[in-house]
Amino acid sequence: EKAQKIVDELNTHIDNVSAALDLIFPGKKMDWVEKKEFTTSQELEQAKNNLIGMQNEDAVKNVDAVLLTVPFQYAKSTLEQLLPNMNPGTILVDVTVPLKKVGRTFVCETFAEGSGSKHLGAIVPENIPVVAAFKTISAHRLMHIERPLEGVDVFIASDNNEALTKVVEMANSIRHLRGIEVGALLCSASLELMTAVLITINIRHKTKQTSFRVTI
What are phi and psi of 215, to 5 degrees? Predict the structure, then answer.
């Protein structure tokens, strides 16, 4: 679901700084586009033209980046299915967060590698760079493409500087978002904890729209 909202935002030309990317949706038929909220019929047709639906194994071939957005408990098995079909150099963008609930509070699972992204990265070949990104953005906020994502920062971490730069550029191409490099992939541990804090705040204050904004 979160990936769908990111794609919607990437492909909606509501102002002059919107991105125009060709995106592929694994396992999706294009009839879901009809059900999305678009301001004009032109935006709907544009989204259809830029989005392609196909099976998981085919979707990850010959692309610049793959966004992993499944629930964390399925992340490893999904990766094991996809990796044989991914070309060397394809960027794996891990959006998953290993959350668990303790009472009314969300916390993160712990791993010997230090974070969920590092744990998944342990099964990824060295020629596929892993980037942690988009973990702290509310899916609820991304759901409404007609509402600007003002005041939202995207925190991005990776051990591969080139891949890190490319994903920052991806984030910056989305209207009103700001991509911020936070360092090595191990920093994803902090990002995952930040997500747990946001969800707990949402529950406590009965909202779905909390986000982080950094003053630099």
Answer: -95, 120
- Across the 216 residues of the chain, what is the mean pLDDT of every consecutive 10-residue run? 52 40 55 54 66 80 93 96 97 97 92 98 98 91 71 94 97 89 98 95 88 86
**Cα gap 83→140, rounded to integer Å:** 29
Strand, coil or helix: 188: helix
Task: Identify residue 185 by its one-letter amino acid code.
Answer: L
> What are residue 155's phi and psi, to 5 degrees?
-95, 130
Domain CATH code at residue 41: 3.40.50.720
| Number of domains present in the structure of the chain | 1
Residues 134, 155: Cα–Cα separation, whole Å: 7
Residue pair 128/89 in contact by the 8 Å Cβ criterion: yes
pTM (predicted TM-score): 0.80
The pLDDT value recorded for residue 20 is: 42
| Eight-class DSSP state of 2 | H
How far, in Å, are 48, 74, 116, 124 from residue 44 at the CA level?
Answer: 6, 31, 36, 36
Decide if 91 is inside a domain: yes
- Structural domain including 75 reads 2-205
pLDDT for the residue 5: 56
Q: What is the pLDDT of residue 19?
A: 41
Within a domain: residue 212? no
In one-letter notation, the amino acid at residue 215 is T
